[in-house]
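Ex. 9. Protein: Bifunctional protein FolD.
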Amino acid sequence: MILLDGKKTSEAIQREIAAEVADIKAKGGKVPHLAAILVGHDGGSMTYVNNKVLACENVGFESTLLHYEDDITEEELLNKIREINQDDTIDGLIVQLPLPRHISSTRVLEVLDYKKDVDGFHPLNVGHMVAGLPAYLPATPYGILQLLERYNIETKGKHCVVVGRSNIVGTPISILMSKCTYPGESTVTICHRNTVDLAHHTRQADILIVAVGKPGLITADMVKEGAVVIDVGTTRVEDATRARGWRLRGDVDFDHVAPKCSYITPVPGGVGPLTIAMLLKNTLRAAKKEVHD
Ligand SMILES: Nc1nc2c(c(=O)[nH]1)N[C@@H](CN(C=O)c1ccc(C(=O)N[C@@H](CCC(=O)O)C(=O)O)cc1)CN2
Ligand SMILES: [Mg+2]
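Predicted structure tokens for Bifunctional protein FolD:
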């Protein structure tokens, strides 16, 4: 069994990005600039946004954090986004999800300029991704592809079973794994809350990708011997033995599943760290206008 080390892979990607930024600076080019919008005070969201800002610093990007109280109106937020859309100094803009319930994330993501949409959530980027046209790929699926590629894992002709159909992970990764580019060329099955006999499907998987947020959902009897298992779940569960009172648990019962796998991601330290690295990669591509015009 080989552990897919997301932390190490993320650090390698960030070193590559930092080297490119140093090169851009040496040539007097434009330093990539990411703006992040955070609404409210959700603990996880604050951590993720702060980590994104820190990661920008580490690779030499500029960053701007816009933090609003959770009583900001939808119209006020949309106007902020419209302002940033017009600001040529900013290359990439993300709005941390989830948003408070009175704000429509659909409207927010539609107003955002698709050329600055480094999360890849705008309908135009989603459409381009589906059609195999140049697009920003959402960071988590993009990170999964990077793990498969950098560990030289064969995907062609394999049966890839995706559990979870969210817009952020399950749906995009299922499309990307079926594409005719590496990593891809897989036969894909998507499972969700209404799937009958989940275990029947997961046992068929050569590559199993799980993104539902149910700790320990995938047990050893649900996994084929030699499978590649990618666990995207990161749920905070109470743990009195930890100073902060909680620990992260994945969707896979790691201790019992790992011995059966050819490759598996740990939680934490698997897919999560790649999410940050691929956001930086998209921001670099935005600054270089590599994706759109
Ligand atoms: N606008 C966005 N919102 C959300 C996204 C996103 O890509 N764009 N994804 C998730 C949250 N997320 C980033 O925003 C994210 C989740 C997890 C990790 C991560 O590094 N996890 C680590 C553990 C970190 C910890 O200790 O808490 C791991 O798995 O090893 C990074 C980013 C929803 N919202
Ligand atoms: Mg999902």
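Check your answer against this statement. The two ends are 43 Å apart (CA to CA).
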